[in-house]
Predict the 3D structure of the following.
Amino acid sequence: MSRNRDNGPRGNARLASDPRAVAGELVAEIDGSLSNTQADELARRHGLARLQSQNFPLVSATIGLFRITDRRSFGAVSREFSADASVHSVQPNFRYLLQDQAAALTEGDPAQYANAKLRLPQAHTLADGANVTIAVIDSGIDRKHPEFPNSIAESYDALGSKEGPHAHGTGIAGAIVAHARLMGSAPAARILAIQAFGDAPGGAESTSFVVLKALDYAVAHGAQIINMSFAGPKDALIERGLAAAAAKGTVLVAAAGNAGPKSPPLFPAADAAVIAVSATDSRDRLFAASNRGGYIAVAAPGVDILLPVPDEKYQLMSGTSFSAAYVSGLAALILQRNPTLQPDQVRAILTKTARDLGAPGRDDLFGAGEADAYAAVLAAAPVPVVSASDAGTIAKSADPGQVPASRLPIPPAAAIASDSQVIDESRRSPAQ
């Protein structure tokens, strides 16, 4: 296998003290024929300790996580290690952070403004996410919360840490499948609860190696949608995993990021295979901390969202994390309505049916606009198939007006255009 030049030692030497990466660790693709004993010997020859390694079917590669055992820089180790014939690529073990800003616990049940903004009540008359599986790669989810009866299909701890449930992961699941006191965007969907983020001094955190484990598990266990409410730097290993997941037909949704207007693009949201979601408030204004950029696909409510948290409690939370979760649920409604749709078609439906916000047309704040669940579900309806006999009947009809309407194929775009509630310029919000 040829070495990936984009991830070779020359490109990574400058990352020796990069705060975005775990100090003293590296991730490498190694020869898959090596036994654990041989992999350990490979590591020792280069002054490393193998922390773990495994084969990832998603990317058809064996990836190892290694720790530098002396005081050498990452650049020096990377140059030496990548020169070994058994090593195909080397990169830092990047950090990923969840994208939320928690608020105080709240009492009472304020109106869920997000439901009205997204037109979820109307959409739920047509689809509720049944028989659609969404993988939530996040911190631990409180499976016993009363909002989640029969919602969590499987759980997987990619960390191996045995940490308990966390507010962020529980809130993300709530935005998607809550159906007790609250209502999520896809209340009948199934959740694959993948714990990939653990407690750290700066908040819940994960790494390249763990996120790849989570992606690999999600795809292997039938996730049709993967929600990624976290952000980090551009990462060749995760990019490879995302491309493989998308090629298998998995819809990928991610938080745009909470680093503000001056931030560079954050990943995985900025990856071309991913639907990036920015956050709005109850007045359709952009969340001040939301990332901007050409990679934003759509926006969704993400400010002061009432969500479930562990121990049967509820909390107001803000961040692009929760906007992404809502859109993952919308993708589930779309796929329930038309399971044959591919990821690029789901993206197209979400963007083409979004309600324009800000400057007319697409912009770097809201993307195509605020997602509209009802319009999206209408647009996802499969085009009726016309049989050969029906086609002959239509062709022979002297008066087209007499052809039964049920026999005429109506493309989704036409169905949308005929619905004044969906395409209505008066619903467009004024420029922000």
Observations:
- The domain at 5-94 is CATH 3.30.70.80 (Alpha-Beta Plaits).
- The chain has two domains: 5-94, 99-377.
- Residues 10 and 79 are 7 Å apart (CA to CA).
- The two ends are 51 Å apart (CA to CA).
